[in-house]
Amino acid sequence: MSKLLVIDDCETDHFIMDRMLGLHGLFPGKELCFDAEAAINQLEDDCLDESKLPDVIFLDLFMPRFNGFNFLDRFRKLYPAIDKTIHIFIISCSINPADKINAEKYPFVKGYFLKPVNMNTLKNIALAYGQTLQSA
């Protein structure tokens, strides 16, 4: 089973994502995190234990104090030390083309989606990581 980490400072966005994923049993072991700095600190602590690392990260770009780009910069330094492949999908409300271009410069960023992410996108991502779909 693939593990998902959702990093977003908005409680409403967490609620929506949790409901949408739960509707089809996608990423049942998901973790929700409100603080990108706390998330990267935890990944740094766990980098040698694959069982604690997610397979997929959904990352919001615009959060106070420590944003998604700060996270991506730290993750870029950490990534070579990790023996597990972790893919990041940006989940943002930004329609600024520069944000998408800048995010996609990181080789581990595999997609950029506007909030709220539609159900078909979530299903496709889950299927790509070996999830099976449950009917609603």
What does this protein structure show overall?
The chain has 136 residues and is an alpha/beta fold. The chain has a single domain, classed as Rossmann fold, CATH 3.40.50. 38% of the residues lie in helices and 17% in strands. It has 5 helices and 5 strands, in the order βαβαβαβαβα. The chain has a 5-stranded parallel beta sheet with strand order 2-1-3-4-5, covered by helices on one side. The mean pLDDT is 92.
Work out the radius of gyration: 14 Å
CATH topology, by name, is Rossmann fold
Number of domains: 1
Compressed to H and E, one letter per element, the order equals EHEHEHEHEH
Low-pLDDT stretches are: none
Question: Share of helix among residues?
Answer: 25-40%
Summarize the structure.
This protein has helices at 11-23, 36-46, 68-78, 97-103, 119-128; strands spanning 4-7, 31-33, 56-59, 87-92, 109-114. By secondary structure, the protein is of the alpha/beta class.
Keywords:
38% helix, 136 residues, alpha/beta, 5-stranded parallel β-sheet, Rossmann fold, globular
Please outline the helices and strands.
Blueprint: E1 4-7, H1 11-23, E2 31-33, H2 36-46, E3 56-59, H3 68-78, E4 87-92, H4 97-103, E5 109-114, H5 119-128
Parallel strand pairs: 1-2, 1-3, 3-4, 4-5
Helix pairs in contact: 2-3
